[in-house]
Amino acid sequence: MGERALALIGRQEWLDRPSYRFENVLSFVFNAFGRQRNRVTNALNGVWLGHPAHPPLASFASGAIGTTVALDALHALPHRPAVERLDAARFAQRALGIGILANLGSAVTGVTDWQHTHEQDRRVGLVHGLLNLLATALYVTSWLDRRRGRQLRGVAVSAFGYGIASASGYLGGSLVFGSGVGIDQSGPGLRTTEWVPVLAEESLPEGETQRVEVDGVGVVVCRTNGEVSAVGEFCPHLAAPMSDGWLDRGRIVCPWHGSQFDVHSGRVVRGPAAAPLPWYQARLHDGKIEVRGEGELTR
Predict the structure, then answer these.
(1) pTM of the model
(2) What distances in angstroms separate CA 1 from CA 8, 47, 126, 173, one per listed residue?
(3) Is the bond preceding 272 in cis, omega lying within 30 degrees of 0?
(4) Which of 228, 169, 220, 177 minimizes the C-alpha distance to 201?
(5) Among 122, 148, 76, 109, which residue's Cα sits nearest to residue 271?
(6) Could you tell me the sign of the dihedral formed by the alpha carbons of 27, 278, 253, 224, in that order?
(7) Tens-place pLDDT, residues 172-225
(8) How many C-beta neighbours within 10 Å does residue 172 have?
(9) How far is CA 297 from CA 50, 113, 211, 261, in A?
(10) More confidently predicted of 271 and 80
């Protein structure tokens, strides 16, 4: 049933127009930060974590709301002392408030990741986000009801919202585990510790990149400012071929979504990629460009 629902959502091409209009609004908002744009988007993409920031925030929000539901169930148990029932109700409201804040943070980071998806993944992600917004609105309603003394109504509304969020979580899980959104997709790394000649020095002009293969692993060799560097074949974000990218001031730029990586370390300079690009040692030796995998970044 879940697979049929995913297939049905994925076929809804009419969702593309509003989704791309919304993406234009997001771009306008991010561009309004001016010189701080990269710093803001990098923070939301999770560059500082080394992986997307959305999944841990979503898990934290789900845990907080799940705590609320559990405490509500405890409050509803018969023959419990009045003090325990009162404590359960009070702590349920606090957990719900924390869950609402975490959901808002999850929404902001999630939409930052979503804007770089395409076709079926974009449509599923849009529905996933809308369901989460609906659930969050229900949580806010529940929190207000509880403050106004409408305990039973507040419990019912938050439980309904939790059910919607659970269905939405299935959609989000399909994006991660089915399509690899948010997963490091840079592929297998080069492990050899021996220097391996891959190109003649004159075959790689200044400012150019070229793909080579070493021990069955794709490697992109770069030449900038007279130095050679070697990085992984695929962008960690969505596996774009980095050999189709370009060099810009000591950075290699992903050809699909504009992620930028330092060619001398693989470090992320600009998202949406959050994980570093695999980096390998490279040198010029006897007119040859040689690489080895000893310098790969530790994951």
Answers:
(1) 0.82
(2) 11, 36, 20, 15
(3) yes
(4) 228
(5) 109
(6) positive
(7) 999 988 888 888 899 888 988 889 999 999 999 999 999 999 988 999 999 998
(8) 23
(9) 12, 24, 19, 13
(10) 271
